[in-house]
Amino acid sequence: MANLPIRGRGASSNPPNRFERIAFEPEPLPPDPDDPIPYRETQYLRDNSRTLISTNNSPDIPFSASLNLYRGCSHGCIYCYARPFHEYLGLSAGLDFETIVFVKQDAPELLREELQAARWKPQTIALSGVTDPYQPAERHFELTRRCLRILADFRNPVAIITKNFLVTRDVDLLTELAEHQAVSVHISITTLKNSLQRVMEPRTSIPSRRLAAVEILANHDVPVGVMVAPVIPGLTDHEIPAILKAAADAGARFANFIPLRLPHGVADLFQNWLDQHFPDMKNRVLNRIREIRGGKLNETGFGSRMRGKGKYAEQIRALFNVSRAKLKLDARGPQLSTAAFRRPNEQLGLFDNG
Question: pLDDT by residue (tens digit) across 61-79?
């Protein structure tokens, strides 16, 4: 039996950590007759990481350097592939992931040090590769804005992906970077239905606000596109043409998509979520996922985990490509440039008399 939904949360439970042999199961709280829907506050904890820029060599990922300023994300997207990363911290991929968020408060200083070092080779940095840089915590901590200020100072290119209208707050810095071909923004849109977004991505911006963000950025000549991710077979795949049309009308220049991934405990969380919100569609959705994942709910192999495989995956890909081509959206974002990269202290040194 599924747990009761929790207001403003995607997950409704804390499944056991796959690395831990002992799990804590709290006693359920008695229902409040005046407010029967449970609620859980978000905690923000300091992350004392001493380095900031992460690197990878995955053939499936189009960038090798990234910034992750927050660990955990209170957007609460039920399908988030980053949820299992919380298990490395001794926590759960469920409610813990969206209610216990670690904040790298030293991030701006660390970023400046790493870009200033001679060992840094200018390249595009993804912001971010894991959790959303404009999640609710950003309104208070402003780590993304402060890091963008540094990236603009160094003119180091950055590719941003977000589900949040808050990205428009930084249009001044994004415009500055765009003058040097040093920025692209991908707005993630999974559905145009508010009713679905509200339960699937409970603390993200509603679809119309994401489209408004596309329009604002486009009007400021910031290269902006749409990432339809994840596409959920049997639930959201039919929306692809409408999403692309709305994004193109708002000024998007490029578009891409990624089919749903359900690594580790995310599969159980997603199935529980279907029980809560779409019980009549559960079997259909899960069977469609298995069709594109070789009979399983997840696939880890390079080359297919980000694309899916089989006839149904090809149908989704064909629908996307035909819709994108009809709207004249590019398949990729702009090629970003490192030509303008500079180290500000070195530039100032040109005027020394010593």
Answer: 778 899 999 999 999 999 9
